[in-house]
Amino acid sequence: MTINELQDNIIEEFSMFDDWMDKYALLIDLGNSLEPLDEKYKKPQNIIEGCQSRVWLNAELNNGVVTFQGESDAVLVKGIVSLLIQVLSGHTPDEILNTELYFIDKIGLKEHLSPTRSNGLVAMVKQMKMFALAYKSVNS
Fold first, then answer.
1. Which domain holds residue 45?
2. Cβ proximity of 62 and 106 under 8 Å
3. What is the pLDDT of residues 43-86, one digit of tens each?
4. Which CATH number goes with the domain that contains 41?
5. Cα(29)–Cα(67) distance, rounded to whole angstroms?
6. What is the number of structural domains in the chain?
7. 57 vs 13, 23, 49, 96, 118, CA distance in Å?
8. Catalytic residue from among 3, 6, 27, 51
9. pTM of the model
10. DSSP states of 64-88 as a string?
11. Strand, coil or helix: what is 44?
12. Staple partner for 30: which of 19, 59, 82, 87, CB 3.0–4.6 Å?
């Protein structure tokens, strides 16, 4: 699936709920279903700066595609990490770098997060794009 198809699926899934409490519950469910991050990746260089809670993000390049893994010590943030991984993992560095993550605004995520959580979301996206940029330059 393309990144935009994945984003559209998320928009559709979130549009089933009118109440933000239900959307938060969905985010928490997504976070709870996220594969736990191996302890070896929970090191200081994998912590996302700018997040209110602790967020670890790891990326690997295999067969030309970037695979992301992540985790957070806050269940809601873990759900956000899960969404970002769902959309960006398994794509080429170019696909990741050239995509606009429109699902974040379409589902109303940014406007329903506290300012510090919103800053953390921006920091996570930025870090994922930085990993993609680093892998693109290695492959060039």
1. 3-139
2. no
3. 999 999 877 789 999 999 999 999 999 999 999 999 999 999 99
4. 3.90.1010.10
5. 21
6. 1
7. 25, 23, 11, 15, 17
8. 51
9. 0.93
10. TEEEEEEEESSHHHHHHHHHHHHHH
11. helix
12. 82
